[in-house]
């Protein structure tokens, strides 16, 4: 980039929306992933799709990289400006254009915060189900680009199950629109192609999502297991009894001990695992499912506590929500991964991760979404300790290769970014990667959009 | 194609699986869409993915078209070999590889018939929800390629909501695999890109689908409306009361009269519309929703009959199932379209289609999936009557343009194929089409896969 480029950016968005001072740039040089940092050359904050399109047209002509950034909560270095260029922040594009309570849809700009959309649709008795841990800070655009999940994924699915329309500014500065309020639509599924594409194919400028009725009621419980196998059998039996909890979470012993030492919630520090579960829906179904689920948990050795008030429910979920923050307090650096395995492999995966931690002499707490196999082995370490970091990366290699060996995937909800890029050929093979790269090149021939991420280098 | 090509095809699959006699070719020259016919040069029936890959490699080298064909039930001329070349039938690739009752998945070859999969998973208390009208004849591969819907779409969604993994032979003869049993996966969503791509990007050789628990019970009802507006209000109120019927269908007066004259089911031939609905799920929810739904239908002027036995239920659905066959008996040619509009525009669309029929002096019966706005305006006519056909095509133009004007889409579940190709730029614009064509060219640079369909000519 040269001084002219900066001037042109200022002409597009107004000079107050272009930052080039080092103290500003530093804030946009990293995201929530440890170990990745690089200064961008400028940060630009467009206020409309026309401005986004003009920025891309300029970048495409001058061939500088554009890194779209929502709230920077990314856990796979997906929003780090690794090759310089411009960070395009969607923070100003935060309008809710429309909520349609008849057709259960909402149309939003990418910078709307997920929890703000939920607050806005609540009065119609509707919810937008995807609820990543960062729901109060993450932008919808970021969650669509990363296909984020969350605690309710087992019953409600992930972000892709709710996106029905996208307006996208492409690398050449044209703006296209696919889908809309209809669930059914013909043509290549461009809506799904852009969803989860991690900012490598275009910049989302408008998103249409599907809403669903809020559940009438819900029931939460927590079960303590002396042995992991009992927790595993419980998960299998809950599902095989055709109960679909909204949330079905697991925490391993390391995580339990860590949460307890910080949050003092009275968790059983000797337990090998705890399961936290919630069923929601109509009153009768919830009641029946909760009774069945409690019985299954007990029969498999679980000590069960059912929440009998909103306060007791909050206590249960406070324990789950404390998992990542508590682990993060242990050491200076936290790698929260999201290796995903088939549901019936969850106990194997938890056990193997514990073995990997011991073998490599690193500290790993594992918790996560047992119901859909999406675990969060969380490595706590210190980036400044080179010897330990070598063991951390070795452990990470083993974790991801184990997930794939068990029939799983590299990422359930955090994306690939740069963090997991090197494992991609293990999952997709050379030919599978080549096809994805051919799509990247078809849509972004100059490789200006989040270059080097997800599909790696394409030239 | 030359004689050598035919010999090479025989070498790949065995000579008994290559047909070149005219009487064989004729059977593969058309599908269920009137007005489209062309002879292929050969029909080839591979028995494995290796054979499919070898056929594509040959076709790519020799640059002849390949038209993948399931059971030929397509309603948009998607499987017609319009430019000669080879029809690739998946009929022999009909193995169910695996059913996993723990993880609720099934892995099948593309030639498996949809109802056969349902029969195979029934004993585990599971269902595969997509149920196009052709469920007993359509192949899973065809329904994935077309992203087929069906009667249960409102609650259960369409085929794309159940496909979690695909193995695909590409134009160059390589075989790639994306997704699998996990709902969560990183990378470009290639599974969704191939789903609904109408055979233009690759040939499906293996498909993984998600299964769901069979509903415990269900309740059906039929409601007769003297005026269409009452039916429309009912649909809106059912949804705004947060009831999600598995099935919520509408039939207009023309369809009612036609069904009654053929099937003698005691339908009210004076009614402007009937609504047929079914709620399914747990016993208590079904009971509560059925009571609420009946009340809404009555309050809006509906005369309601609730099925109190399996036999009465069958009677209700026999009326709906008789719609297309009855209309098809009226005249020699039947165009069953699937223009889709937002749910709240269904009454407008039904009324406008009736006006279009009158204005163009053609006969149109409209029925379909009111709950998701996916209607089937069905034009009955005679292809041999050139003057009438001119009016038919004029009416079709008006129908599709009306659907788009009301915020809808060209196709809810039948695909674009050749039948609706000319309307695609109206929905996607020149730039939207260009992006889809760039993806087609990235994956199929020689344009051998179902050329000319869905995205039109690409060179």
TrEMBL record, chains A, B:
<dbReference type="InterPro" id="IPR004113">
    <property type="entry name" value="FAD-bd_oxidored_4_C"/>
</dbReference>
<dbReference type="InterPro" id="IPR051914">
    <property type="entry name" value="FAD-linked_OxidoTrans_Type4"/>
</dbReference>
<dbReference type="Pfam" id="PF02913">
    <property type="entry name" value="FAD-oxidase_C"/>
</dbReference>
<keyword id="KW-0274">FAD</keyword>
<feature type="domain" description="FAD-binding PCMH-type">
    <location>
        <begin position="36"/>
        <end position="214"/>
    </location>
</feature>
<keyword id="KW-0285">Flavoprotein</keyword>
<dbReference type="InterPro" id="IPR016164">
    <property type="entry name" value="FAD-linked_Oxase-like_C"/>
</dbReference>
<dbReference type="InterPro" id="IPR016169">
    <property type="entry name" value="FAD-bd_PCMH_sub2"/>
</dbReference>
<dbReference type="InterPro" id="IPR036318">
    <property type="entry name" value="FAD-bd_PCMH-like_sf"/>
</dbReference>
<dbReference type="InterPro" id="IPR006094">
    <property type="entry name" value="Oxid_FAD_bind_N"/>
</dbReference>
<dbReference type="Pfam" id="PF01565">
    <property type="entry name" value="FAD_binding_4"/>
</dbReference>
<keyword id="KW-0560">Oxidoreductase</keyword>
<dbReference type="InterPro" id="IPR016166">
    <property type="entry name" value="FAD-bd_PCMH"/>
</dbReference>
<dbReference type="InterPro" id="IPR016171">
    <property type="entry name" value="Vanillyl_alc_oxidase_C-sub2"/>
</dbReference>
<protein>
    <submittedName>
        <fullName>FAD-linked oxidase C-terminal domain-containing protein</fullName>
    </submittedName>
</protein>
């Amino acid at each position: 980039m040269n001084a002219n480029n900066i001037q042109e950016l200022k002409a597009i968005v107004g000079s107050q929306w272009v930052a080039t001072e080092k103290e500003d740039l530093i804030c946009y040089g990293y995201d929530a992933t440890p170990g990745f940092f690089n200064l961008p050359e400028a940060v630009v904050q467009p206020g409309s799709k026309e401005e986004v399109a003009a920025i891309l047209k300029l970048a495409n002509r001058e061939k500088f990289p554009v890194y779209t950034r929502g709230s920077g909560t990314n856990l796979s270095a997906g929003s780090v400006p690794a090759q310089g260029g411009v960070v395009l922040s969607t923070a100003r594009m935060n309008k809710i254009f429309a909520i349609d309570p008849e057709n259960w849809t909402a149309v939003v700009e990418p910078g709307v915060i997920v929890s703000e959309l939920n607050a806005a649709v609540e009065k119609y008795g509707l919810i937008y189900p995807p609820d990543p841990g960062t729901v109060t800070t993450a932008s919808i655009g970021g969650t669509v680009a990363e296909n984020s999940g969350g605690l309710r994924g087992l019953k409600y699915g992930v972000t892709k199950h709710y996106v029905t329309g996208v307006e996208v500014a492409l690398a050449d500065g044209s703006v296209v629109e696919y889908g809309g309020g209809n669930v059914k639509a013909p043509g290549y599924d461009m809506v799904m192609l852009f969803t989860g594409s991690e900012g490598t194919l275009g910049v989302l400028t408008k998103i249409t999502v599907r809403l669903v009725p809020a559940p009438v009621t819900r029931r939460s419980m927590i079960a303590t297991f002396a042995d992991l196998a009992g927790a595993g059998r419980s998960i299998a039996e809950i599902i095989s009894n055709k109960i679909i909890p909204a949330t079905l979470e697991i925490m391993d012993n390391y995580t339990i001990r860590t949460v307890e030492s910080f949050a003092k919630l009275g968790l059983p520090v000797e337990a090998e695992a705890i399961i936290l579960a919630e069923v929601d829906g109509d009153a009768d179904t919830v009641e029946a499912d909760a009774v069945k689920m409690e019985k299954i948990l007990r029969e498999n050795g679980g000590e069960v506590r059912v929440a009998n008030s909103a306060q007791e429910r909050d206590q249960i979920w406070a324990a789950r929500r404390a998992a990542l923050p508590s682990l993060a307090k242990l050491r200076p650096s936290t790698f929260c991964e999201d290796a995903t395995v088939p549901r019936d492999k969850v106990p194997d995966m938890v056990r193997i991760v514990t073995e990997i931690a011991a073998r490599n002499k690193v500290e790993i707490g594992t918790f996560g979404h047992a119901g859909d196999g999406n675990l969060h082995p969380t490595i706590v370490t210190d980036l400044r300790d080179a010897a330990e970091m070598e063991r951390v990366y070795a452990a990470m290699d083993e974790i991801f290769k184990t997930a794939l060996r068990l029939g799983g995937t590299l990422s359930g909800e955090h994306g690939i970014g740069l963090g997991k890029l090197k494992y991609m050929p293990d999952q997709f093979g050379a030919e599978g990667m080549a096809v994805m790269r051919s799509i990247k090149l078809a849509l972004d021939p100059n490789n200006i959009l989040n270059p080097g991420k997800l599909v790696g280098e394409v030239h």
